[in-house]
Amino acid sequence: MLIDNYLNALNDTNRLFFKEIDDYLQRHDYKLKIEAIKSGTRFTYTCNKNRRAIANFVIEENKFQLHLYADNISSYTDFVQSLPKNILSVLQKGGKCKRLIDADACNPKCIMGYDYLLDNMRYQKCRYLNFKFLLINHEYNAFIERLIKHECIAREAAFLL
To answer: Would the pTM of this model clear 0.85, i.e. be above it?
Structure first.
């Protein structure tokens, strides 16, 4: 399998985790694009229906990172509230979306970021600067996988509207 050639840098746990996510997303009509980047390989999963990315995985020499595009996070905040504190902290920190605050403050071609509530606090986060997870703590992989699946399900529901 072609993808296996790129996964050699991962340990067995992360390799299995990646393959499970890959299988799930491809079964749900997401196209995989693999590209070499400056220091490793990027795997981008894009929805065939609207060509918007749901996730980028980056494998570098000593790093395995996920950038989740959680466009529908406001529709599954009950689940998000149940996540471990370390994962929640990733969702709470990071840059604000300039365009959500002032529509003229960012590039007009920019897809707006995310506006959601967690613990009764409003967050307006940039789509491109946030939701980046270093996948080094294997005990959180199951939570990250469920987070990706919640986003996937929310996107499918949005297409049905």
So the answer is: yes
